[in-house]
Amino acid sequence: MSDEGANMSHTQHAVRGLRLVGSARLFSQCVTWGLTVITVRLLQPRDYGLVATAGLFTVLATMITDGGLGEILVFRRDLSVRLQGAAAVGGMLLSLIFAAAIALLAPAAAEFFKNPALAAVLRVAALQLPLSAISIVPYALLSKKMHYGRIAVIQTSVSVLQGIATLAMAYMGEAYWSLIYGTLFGSAMRGCAMWLAVKERPPWNWRLWELRPVIRDSYRMVGQRLLFFFSADFDTFVVSRLSGVVALGPYSLAKTLSHAALDQISGTVNQITLPAFAAKAGDHEAQLGALKTIISTAAIVVFPLFWFAGVSAPVAFPLIFGPRWTAMVFPFVAFTVLLPLRTVYALLSSVVVGTGNTSISFKNMIVWAAIMNPLLLIAATFGPRVVAVAWVVGFPFVFLSAMRRISQCFGITLRELLQPLFMPAACSAATAAVVELLTLFLQSSFPAAALVVVQVALAAGFYWVLLVRFCRRQYDQATQLGWQLLGR
Asked: Considering the entire predicted model, what is its pTM?
């Protein structure tokens, strides 16, 4: 096959993958959001705070259990079938060790966080580790071979079924246990479905010494993940310890809801870019062109998405979730201010890993931890609202530092890398200001539901006009990509 034909093949695979995975995630997100709204209204802030505290242990252990093997199995093209089978066994063994450790540490954790219920929750939640470990290798193999249709079907089905199961248990009065059992159910379903979807399954084996060729990359990935966890979830730790699970509940739910779109966008795009950039190893021009397309298209979408959500939240949240969840409005709005930068950061981090430059991602996480953790620790002494503000103050410095390294990696200037962000950000800021002013004038005379509809319509129309007028090139590029994703 010619280079042009190969390039077209990779592009077609990437576009088809984005269409399949993106549409599946959009569908599942719409369904699960509806289920989540009902579930939130049935549960108490304490329930979400308790589960978020337990997640500090299970999420950390899950990151270490993977050890970066999922990504390594994708971007390393020379790994044998025996090594893949050894990776499955190694991940399972490690998950069982960490699950046992969490169960043993549960009483001490409950005492540290001053919450006796945490001990029982951790013992049950630890079962999530081996259940999640089941899917590490098959997910990597499906991604490596770009079987996006199978992945999309599995992810959508599992997300919807998990949401239904969680809601049903919450309705039956299971409180925080509904969130725990729902997660276990989803992890088990995902692992089984992933293995069934792999046609050529590597046989599990105990030849763990075969993993030595990937240990170096694995160590680096584990270090990066640990730093990410201790930075991204450090706020949950300090708020739970200093303010308690009741205060943590609205904060953690605001963080989860505000980051949901980030998770879906980065999860969808990164699922494609990691194998796509790995497949284009050595082709600098192709990788650079794809990088610029990702930044330009992301900027068109993420700035209005998050900033308009922040403007609408004070009106929409009391209407959707009820009055007992009003405490999450302020942190939600604060998070939406910085989430466009967080999304771009997440997308480009995956691109860097796909090129094999894992050391850059590791250095970026060191800077993240060095800047954010001291700031969050100080802010936590003043309460969850100040912690949310600390993110807005500190993360732009993390972002600029990371973008400087990424621009050097691709041989371009920092300004060239960031230039596609400027006009979409300006158009979004102007639109958000107009919508906010309109809200101040109309909120006393319009019912909340009608006001939200007016906000959305005005934001969409005004942003589109500004984008076409001042950012036509990026708009046309994003529109063209959108039509390609729709198969036209």
From this structure: 0.78
